[in-house]
Specification:
The structure holds two protein chains of two kinds.
Chain A: H1 2-9, E1 14-17, H2 19-38, H3 41-65, E2 68-73, E3 78-79, E4 84-92, E5 97-105, E6 113-118, E7 123-130, E8 136-147, E9 154-169, E10 202-207, H4 219-225, E11 229-233, E12 240-245, H5 251-270, E13 274-279, E14 282-287, H6 290-302
Parallel strand pairs in A: 3-9, 12-13
Antiparallel strand pairs in A: 1-9, 2-4, 4-7, 5-6, 5-8, 8-9, 10-11, 13-14
Helix pairs in contact in A: 2-3, 5-6
Chain B: H1 3-26, H2 33-47, H3 57-76, H4 82-98, H5 104-124, H6 128-151, H7 162-186, E1 212-214, E2 227-234, E3 241-251, E4 253-255, E5 258-260, E6 272-273, E7 281-288, E8 299-300, E9 303-312, E10 317-319, E11 322-325, E12 329-332, E13 338-346, H8 360-363, H9 371-381, H10 387-401, E14 403-404, H11 415-423, E15 425-426, H12 428-441, E16 446-458, E17 461-465, E18 469-477, E19 481-485, H13 499-520, H14 524-535, H15 542-545, H16 554-581, H17 584-598, H18 609-618, H19 624-639, H20 648-665, H21 670-674
Parallel strand pairs in B: 14-15
Antiparallel strand pairs in B: 1-5, 2-7, 2-17, 3-8, 3-16, 4-5, 6-9, 7-13, 9-10, 9-13, 11-12, 16-17, 16-18, 18-19
The chains are: A alpha+beta, B alpha+beta.
Chain lengths: 309, 675
């Protein structure tokens, strides 16, 4: 209800005077005062021209902002304080639009896309290099299209409502230490193909494939089987880790802990370990692979924002 | 257009805009010559792409500050007008930025300083060239600014079609000009007059109505087409050319090759009476323009009365006093940029003058005059005693035997003797001097008059050009007074400018006249009378209203025509928009739905055509096949990007109608069976 009430009173366009526009207005006021003081008709003519150019500027900028359809193409993964590409598809139903800059409205995201011209009935995809300041779910309310056209004196903006949620993962960093709560030293999942490429206990034999190292050949069994067999040994270092984020932490401490957990997740998963997460009410079973990394990062992004829908 | 070309175009447009802005102040003639030279140099260097101040940006900026300080020091010392100094400083800033590294920021700075020049030009200029400069400045600066904006905050390597930009900006500039005119016409002219400034000096005089006539000088002024005075006559003679003598100054003494006056000045007064007069005079409303550069009043010969003199500057207009210098001239006592006054002249008849006046100065002959002059005069005049006949004989002789020329050798020892006995050609001053002095050698009283000859009609008034400047003789005839004799051949009396130049200047004068009356002199009174004309139109005259059926007034017809055009334009726009929004296939859908209704198939609310087709197929309706074809075609045309051909639609509908007719005429229609 309150949002509707606010939306009712929100002006359809936002207007901001640029630095050169301020000088222009100052000159206009000066010419106006001079005309009123002296009654010089040429000053009235110049004043009329200056004021008319302001009106013309308003008309042309409005023509540039109308009939625009913009769609947002969300990025796959966004890390805090790390540039990412936000893409916008912009379409003009009729007429041409000039000098448009596109950015997120009322959002802490920095960066904007720039389009010099949008032709009639033509779609264009433009890219904005944005940066999110901190992790967490970032509600995007709409897209703000601004034009300085035609004279660069005023920046006129239009906001197209397009609510969407952008989940910002914790900042990527590097953590040397293993997680303190080395959850368990259990062998990994038997179904994981990577568990047989270690140097630990013998798990089995299989035919030697082309290009495989000859040092892995079990010569005795090969002789018995009349074919080259190689040994498969368990990876001893592969472990399951369940990372824990203390839900009682708040503010920067919580952010730092999330960043640390994200870095550990990335390192452990890339080493072939399985990683789980325990963060307040959220529980993730230990697992491996890129899908698990995304799940952990998403869960870490939401830590502390559970109240949000 | 590629970025490099856009960049060049932007620079050129910016420089042209700056040049137009500078021209608006430069043409007023108030800007110091050094600033003019500096701007011209900067403009040329910038146009060829030389940014000579780029490596010395900071040091040149400091130098610029010092130059600005110097300009305002001159203002403090009273050597320069404040507005001229401000305009000069804006010019210097423009020059500095034009010769610095070119970025969007420097472009904006050039445009803003040019805008300051334009505003200053409005304060110190007053001719139509300012309007032209404003137009050029607005168009070029708008385009350059738009290119800067489209270029964007980052380097843009994209090709941008300039035609749509130009079209949109053309619309914008046109809109701005229309808006400026509307504002100009309707904004009330109220002047606070808190602080006013000195009037500009202008480009300098053209006529230089001097206090002496020197025979050794050249005749360059005769080729000048510059307008120096405008005169409205009452009663209006309605002729294109007046070819009248406009007297300004009289000279009685010839000494060392030049004519001088020795009149005695009377105290300044608001009216000057030269002679008694009654009805039958020609009333003249005279405006002496800044190019006249003199305070001597002119009037048709012979002038009898002067009154209502006003001295004007660009900001004010005040009543001025006049001074009569006995037998020499009448001049304005106050300073001003331009002057207006009323003069009265009799229609050609000489003024009665008391025969007892002292004629000795008008008979005086210089002691060192060449004796051949008197001998020639005596030879031509003979023993004629009537001054009129004697003057006529001499005039005829001079016109027949001497040629008119503007090409003179320069200063000679005795210009009169040189003219009469050696060169035998000269301009009006030679002819007038020769006639006057030759008459004097024979004892007749004569003097030289200087002023203008001509009067060219422009709109409802007559203009006098600098080239119309002329000199002639006046001979005293006892019992009659001073009578005019012009020894100059007729071809040399008026302006000597080429015909093409005359045509151009005449056209210019028409435009300039419009500019002065409609723009420069537009005032609150004009606004009030305009509104009054609209609100309360003048009543028709009795003669017009007495007739039979009256035609509607022209104003009503005009308003009706405008309203009609506007209504048509609105209708055109609306229908065009409606056509744009409706897909061409949609009307085909309407036609199909009409057939469905006609066939009494009872289409349900929101039922798509495909479902109707299914129903028709199930019921084996005769419409099933053609309707299915038409439906498929509609769907293709509407959503498949295959528009209907020109005759395809009518063909489909014709088949449907045929099936419909067959279905309704057949008593065993399946649909009816099913029901």
């Amino acid at each position: 209800m309150w949002k509707r009430f606010k939306a009712w009173f929100r002006p359809p366009r936002q207007l901001k005077v640029t630095a050169s526009g301020r000088v222009y207005l100052l000159i206009t006021v000066g010419v106006g005062l001079g005309a009123l003081n002296t009654g010089n008709n040429l000053l009235y003519l110049v004043l009329g021209m200056l004021l008319s150019l302001i009106v013309a500027s308003g008309v042309l900028s409005e023509r540039s902002l109308r009939h625009l359809v913009v769609n947002r193409v969300m990025p796959d993964g966004v890390f805090a304080q790390e540039p990412f590409a936000m893409r916008y598809e912009i379409h003009r139903q009729e007429g041409r639009a000039f000098a448009l800059s596109i950015k997120e409205a009322d959002s802490p995201l920095t960066g904007e896309a720039w389009v010099p011209i949008v032709e009639s009935e033509t779609s264009r995809v433009v890219r904005a290099t944005c940066t999110a300041p901190k992790r967490g779910p970032l509600p995007l309310v709409g897209i703000k299209i601004t034009t300085l056209y035609p004279f660069g004196l005023f920046a006129k903006s239009r906001v197209i409502d397009m609510p969407e949620m952008l989940v910002v993962y914790p900042r990527r960093g590097f953590v040397c230490a293993d997680p303190s709560q080395l959850a368990s030293a259990h062998p990994g999942d038997g179904g994981n193909p990577r568990r047989r490429d270690g140097t630990g206990d013998l798990l089995g034999l299989r035919p030697l494939a082309d290009g495989e190292d000859a040092r892995h050949i079990h010569w005795l069994k090969s002789a018995a089987a009349s074919e080259l067999l190689r040994t498969e040994r368990e990876r001893e270092e592969r472990r399951q880790f369940v990372l824990e984020v203390d839900a009682s932490l708040t503010g920067d401490a919580l952010d730092r802990r999330c960043e640390e957990a994200a870095a550990q997740t990335q390192r452990l998963l890339s080493s072939g370990h399985e990683v789980g997460l325990r963060a307040g009410p959220r529980r993730l079973r230990a697992s491996a692979g890129p899908g698990q990394e995304r799940r952990v990062l998403t869960a870490l992004a939401w830590v502390g924002f559970e109240a949000l829908p | 257009m590629r970025p490099a070309n856009r960049f060049k175009l932007r620079t050129r447009l910016r420089d042209v805009a700056a040049a137009a802005a500078f021209a608006s102040i430069g043409l007023s003639g108030s800007v110091p010559a050094a600033i003019v030279v500096m701007f011209c140099l900067s403009f040329v260097l910038s146009m060829v792409g030389k940014r000579i101040l780029q490596p010395f940006f900071k040091s040149s900026a400091v130098a610029l500050l010092f130059l600005g300080g110097g300009l305002f020091f001159m203002v403090f010392r009273g050597g320069l007008d404040l507005i001229v100094a401000a305009c000069s400083f804006a010019t210097l800033v423009s020059c500095h930025r034009m010769l610095s590294e070119q970025t969007a920021r420097t472009d904006l700075q050039v445009h803003l300083s040019s805008l300051l020049m334009m505003a200053g030009g409005a304060a110190i200029a007053n001719d139509i060239w300012f309007g032209v400069c404003l137009l050029v400045f607005a168009a070029t600066a708008s385009f350059a600014l738009a290119l800067t904006v489209i270029e964007g905050p980052v380097e843009n390597t994209e090709d941008v079609p300039l035609r749509p930009v130009a079209r949109a900006l053309g619309f914008s500039v046109t809109l701005a000009f229309v808006g400026a005119l509307v504002f100009f016409v309707f904004f009330p002219r109220l002047s606070w007059n808190i602080a006013t400034r000195r009037s500009p000096e202008g480009l300098g005089g053209a006529t230089g109505m001097s206090d002496r006539v020197r025979l050794g000088g050249g005749g360059d002024i005769k080729t000048s087409a510059r307008v120096v005075a405008r005169v409205r006559l009452s009663p209006d003679p309605q002729s294109d050319r007046l070819d009248a003598y406009w007297v300004g100054r009289l000279f009685d003494t010839y000494r060392d090759g030049e004519w001088l006056g020795h009149g005695k000045a009377s105290p300044p007064s608001s009216r000057v009476r030269l002679a008694p007069f009654s009805l039958g005079v020609v009333r003249q409303f005279v405006t002496l323009l800044p190019s006249y550069e003199s305070r001597t009043l002119i009037a048709l010969e012979p002038a009898v009365w002067f009154q209502n003199a006003m001295a004007s500057s660009t900001t004010t207009s005040n009543r001025a006093a006049m001074v009569r210098v006995e037998d020499e001239e009448v001049h304005i006592a106050d300073n001003g940029n331009a002057f207006t006054y009323e003069a009265f002249s009799t229609d050609g008849a000489p003024l009665p003058i008391d025969d007892a006046i002292d004629l000795r100065p008008y008979r005086a002959v210089p002691a060192n005059i060449d004796p051949r002059v008197a001998a020639l005069a005596a030879q031509i005049i003979g023993d004629e005693k009537d001054p009129r006949k004697a003057a006529a004989r001499l005039t005829r002789h001079l016109q027949r035997n001497f040629a008119y020329t503007l090409e003179l050798p320069g200063d000679v020892v005795d210009p009169l003797a040189h003219f009469l006995f050696e060169r035998k050609e000269g301009h009006c001053e030679h002819f007038a001097s020769a006639l006057t002095l030759m008459l004097r050698t024979q004892g007749f009283a004569a003097r030289v008059a200087a002023g203008f000859f001509g009067g060219e009609r422009v709109a409802d008034q007559y203009v006098l050009r600098a080239g119309d400047a002329h000199a002639w003789s006046q001979v005293f005839v006892p019992g009659t007074g001073w009578q005019t004799f012009d020894a100059t051949p007729e071809s040399g009396r008026g302006g000597q400018s080429p015909s093409l130049l005359s045509w151009v200047t005449r056209a210019y004068e028409e435009v300039d006249n419009w500019w002065r009356t409609r723009v420069m002199d537009y005032s609150l009174i004009d606004q009030v009378s305009m509104v009054r004309t609209w609100v309360r139109p003048p009543r028709q005259t009795a003669a017009a209203s007495a007739g039979g059926p009256r035609a509607p007034p022209a104003r009503a017809l005009g308003v009706a025509a405008v309203l009609g055009v506007l209504t048509y334009a609105l209708f055109f726009v609306i229908t065009r928009r409606a056509d744009k929004r409706t897909h061409p296939a949609s009307s085909f859908l309407d036609d199909l739905e009409k057939r469905v209704e006609k066939a009494k198939l009872a289409q349900r609310m929101g039922e798509p055509l495909e479902d109707i087709v299914k129903r028709l197929r199930v019921s084996q309706h005769p419409l099933a096949q053609p309707f299915e074809r038409a439906t498929l075609r509609y769907l293709e045309a509407r959503f498949g990007g295959k528009p209907l051909a020109s005759n395809e639609r009518s063909e489909q509908l014709r088949q449907l109608d045929a099936a419909l007719t067959a279905g309704t005429s057949s008593p065993t229609a399946p649909n009816s069976k099913q029901r």
